Amino acid sequence: MCSSEMLLSLVTLLAVLAPVYQAALVISPLNDASPRSRREAEGHQQDISKDGIDMYSVRIVSTITSRFANTVTTSRLKNKNPDAREVKFELQLPPHAFISNFTMVIDDDLYIGVVKQKKVAKVQYEKAKSQGQSAGLIRTANTSPDNFVIAVNVASQSKVTMEVTYQELLQRQLGRYSHVISLRPHQLVHHFQVDVYIFEQQGLTFVEVEDFHSSHAVNLTRGEQKAHITFKPTLEDQRMCLNCLETKLDNDFTIHYDVNRDLDAGQIQIVNGYFVHFFAPVNLHPLPKNIVFIIDISSSMWGQKIIQTREAMVTILGQLKPEDHFTLVQFSHRISTWNDEMTIANEDNIEKAQEFSRQLTPSGMTNINDAVLRGSAILRKAREEEKLPAQSASILLLLTDGDPTYGEKNKENIRRNVKNDLGEDVVLFCLGFGMHLDYGFLEKMALENQGLARKIFEGADAPLQLKGFYDEVATPLLSKIHLEYPDNIAVNVTRSEFETYFDGSELVVAGRIVNNSLESFSSSVTAKAELGDLTLIADVGINDTEDLLEKQQYIFGAFTERLWAYLTIKQLLTQRMIEPNPEVKQILTDRALNISLKYGFVTPLTSMVITKQQRVKKQAPDVTARKVPPTEGKRKVTGVDSDPHFIIELPGQQQHLCFNIDEEPGRIINLLTDIDNGISVNGQIIGAKKVDDKTGKLQTYIGRLGIVLSDLGIFIDISTESIVVRDSNGRTKFPWNDVYVKKDNFSIQVSDLDKLFIFLPIDTSFEVVLHRVWRKNEIHRSFLGFYTMGESSFSPRTHGLIGQFFKEPAINIFNIRPGQEFDKPIATMQVKGHTLQVTRGHQMDYRTHKHGRRSGDAVTCWFVHHNANGLIDGDHSNYLMPDMYSFLDTRGMV
After folding, report:
1. Secondary structure class of 102 (helix, strand, coil)
2. β-bridge pairing 426-433 and 393-400
3. Strand ranges (DSSP E) for 571-663?
4. Residue 265 and residue 335: Cα distance in Å, rounded?
5. What HEC string does 235-298 produce?
6. What's this model's pTM, rounded to 2 decimal places?
7. Tens digit of pLDDT for each residue in 639-649?
8. What CATH number matches the domain at 8-259, 2.60.40, 1.10.10, 1.10.287, 2.40.50?
């Protein structure tokens, strides 16, 4: 298709930060069906096409680990028309989510979204269009930022599979987390299924699905720490009426849950050198609050707005507690108050304030500056006269539907005046009523004063929206909260100081741990509570997190680094929004941009450009014959072993290439990803016990392997201690012993106590070598070697640090000359358009080693320095993975 036949455009997409983490769990529709049964399913179903477009399946899979949600939406359709037709996809995102992945397959053409800086993405998109190539652009929009629409022209009889991944950190509000999935397919779907998996280490107190039509198609199962919710509506469940083609799925699928908690310093989780700290104590006495309601009664509030405001204020005032102090300020171009002083919330005063609220009448223009300053002055006077409790929380709540039109109208000046007047002891919340206002102005003013802004949408439920927001801030429990971590151990820590903690919410802090030898990690929390100063201490053993990691991988894997990136970008964008200094603003922008690009998030600073890549059809595996790989004789050497050294054989050129990847212990690197065959192999780096005195280096090795066979639903976790196989039937743990296990088209075999063979259904296998080291060795640890066999059986799209070399690159080696060591000459090598200096040396192939004795065959190779920069596609950091079971995303590398 040319560019005139296809247009991918993001009409609207959420501009607020959020994931994510690249799609670790990619589940295509009808993934469990064989090619034959899939064709039958598509060819012999009731015709429910709409305008000749048949939607075969929609599959939504959300995995939630420790409040961090990864959602993958996969849609599959076919254009049955004799001509091309435009199809629109709509994905409504939650208000804190970031898109992190987008792919689309049209017949055998693969389109992959690559996150770029906005200007770079725009240039690349326009260039592709000018050359007649199919391309697209995904970017954030300024209007309706939570609605994502793609329009694509589909050729006659063509099939389209579209996959979008987004991530978000669930916000705790009113004592629960809410995960919202938009269900708006706009037509009937043959196979519609939603799966939500939840894992919370603290334990689940409740899980519930918000009631909606077709709720009978919902199934919920839960245990102490895990829950699985499915929604699988039939065609009859989806129909608007009997035998009609209109769907009634046009709503949100919402899941609420909460976790166990206590009055303590919260929960700290550590994975791969990154920590996340969740703080949400309970059983605290509420702080008295001092609240000033500042209400816009300008003429634009006439009609339904003022009626709904009166209704909401009467309800809210009735919920004040006897220990609270309050007053009301109403403003148009004039400013007036219900009482010029903070007033105790007794029954008589509340009734008088409610009657005052019932009489609110709109007229005049809008003087926001003087109204907020009047409320601030009332609070300050009460403080100075010591009429308010010493341990209390002071709040201004501004409700307005318009821009400043009277008095000080310059919004920058208003923000500056308010910030200077409020100081650090008053929190400002801004509620923007309706659509015709500068919400950005209100948001900045709130953020500058430790609060937040919220839109109140016009409609019948506006009073409920107003009351709902008030409920979130109605019960302050702590003020002046400071979460502190050890100096020189925790770095790049996200925001850790907060003015107020409200009941039902949660504070989240993340950071990086730089001391690899640390056995425990501690945090202290200090705050002001109703009964006085509060200090809490949290301490967690780092080694204890290994079991936690294993449990998390049941659903999500090592999530903490992605969550740290998510929080950091979000906070940098917030700081950037309110920073007045242009130089500082640019620094914040650059940092947020770099992290967005590194972790593949679509943010206000980045866009996702859609480019075409060739996709080769997957062949059905032939598993009728399998041969055990020979244990003797010369074999092709492709693998990774020792420190960790990669050995790549290029048989067509009779050469070997070697390289190292120097990364910190705990990092996970992708060795091989074959997306067509559903195979992924990741290795986790471990470090020696201490720096080698002779070399001055900390040696690193592969200490753990994670292998995914997604077509079989099998996950293999290999460590130096055991081999764990997971599938739909559960989890089986094997020791390194003489054992043989066969399951479907997959089998494993351990021989000689230290060699593991993994036979795959594509007539190939892996070999893992266990190098045992004496436990009392002062420097070294036991580690693993990994080798591949039968590379020709993998698909041409196979990639990874090892997998990319299954397609042999052309190299040219010349100008061989003496090096610094007489037996290690150096040379110039040209490869993949790069000119590199390489060194001749040798590495060990340990597949022939004998049990109990570390020995092997020496392989002579040309060594590529600097993390194989120029030899491997992209940068080595592109191969860093968020968890042991992720598939490599090659976007931006090739």
Report:
1. strand
2. parallel
3. 606-614, 638-641, 645-650, 655-660
4. 44
5. HHHHECCCCCCCECCCEEEEEEEEECCCCCCCEEEEECCEEEEEECCCCCCCCCEEEEEEEECC
6. 0.64
7. 999 888 899 99
8. 2.60.40
